[in-house]
């Protein structure tokens, strides 16, 4: 990850570390249960949760695996998460850049990364590093917000994400992710693309605190053309944005 993007990510998540722990979007238990269902973990496995944030996935993995490492680029975020999860004894914490992981080859049975890759400035390196640290036949599970395949919808989506969060690099299209995942050596075993509805205020205020900047983001939504507004299911109430929907991709891959 570039030094400039590292600083942006660290700044954003240091300032907002508590809001990510309590975020309803990140703490969605139905989503976490689905991760466990897809992985079907064994009790002797060792897992790695990349860009752990509030530690929701790491916490879920620790219920079923022998040991889990929760890693994050942002020290303040990781320390805050460690405090919240201090009662879990089979969890450890390591500060790590996803593009250069501090682990030996073939160290983990599972690598997970959820709602984070859109912050990564070098996604190809992230994929290659996930592959490297997995044991043979190990599983890689990724969930992230994705851009629509249509360029004008892609532009609208990534624009408002960058307006709201300076650490947002890019949400990639599924077609773009596959050009990174498959050449790395992964086999895609399972995938689902789904809609995710976000309460506008909760989403906006999680990372953006300046009222003028918040207003600019809302105006961008309000000025959206009908086709764009329909695609993102923008819901208005009393002239203000109440909620909207984005695309999310969940994919389970296996190392050869």
TrEMBL record:
Gene3D superfamilies: Vaccinia Virus protein VP39. The keyword DNA damage does not apply. InterPro entries: Methyltransf_11 (IPR013216), SAM-dependent_MTases_sf (IPR029063). It holds the Pfam family Methyltransf_11. It comes from the Bacteria. Residues 48-141 form the Methyltransferase type domain. GO terms for biological process: methylation. Keywords: Methyltransferase, Transferase. GO terms for molecular function: S-adenosylmethionine-dependent methyltransferase activity. This is Methyltransferase domain-containing protein.
């Amino acid at each position: 990850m570039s030094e400039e993007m590292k600083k942006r990510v660290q700044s954003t998540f240091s300032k907002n570390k508590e809001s990510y722990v309590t975020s309803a979007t990140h703490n969605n238990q139905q989503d976490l249960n689905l991760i466990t269902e897809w992985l079907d973990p064994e009790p002797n496995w060792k897992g790695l949760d990349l860009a752990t944030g509030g530690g929701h996935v790491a916490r879920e993995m620790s219920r079923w695996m022998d040991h889990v490492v929760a890693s994050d680029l942002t020290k303040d975020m990781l320390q805050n998460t460690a405090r919240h999860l201090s009662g879990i004894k089979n969890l450890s914490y390591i500060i790590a850049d996803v593009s250069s992981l501090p682990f030996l080859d073939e160290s983990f049975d599972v690598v997970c990364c959820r709602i984070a890759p859109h912050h990564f400035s070098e996604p190809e390196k992230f994929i290659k590093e996930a592959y490297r640290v997995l044991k043979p036949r190990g599983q890689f599970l990724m969930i992230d917000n994705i851009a629509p395949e249509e360029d004008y919808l892609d532009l609208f989506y990534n624009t408002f994400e960058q307006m709201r969060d300076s650490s947002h690099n890019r949400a990639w299209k599924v077609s773009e992710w596959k050009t990174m995942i498959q050449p790395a050596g992964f086999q895609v075993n399972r995938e689902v693309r789904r809609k995710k509805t976000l309460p506008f205020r909760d989403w906006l205020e999680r990372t953006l605190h300046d009222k003028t900047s918040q207003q600019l983001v809302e105006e961008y939504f309000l000025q959206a053309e009908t086709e764009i507004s329909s695609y993102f299911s923008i819901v208005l109430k009393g002239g203000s944005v109440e909620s909207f929907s984005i695309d999310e991709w969940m994919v389970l891959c296996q190392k050869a």
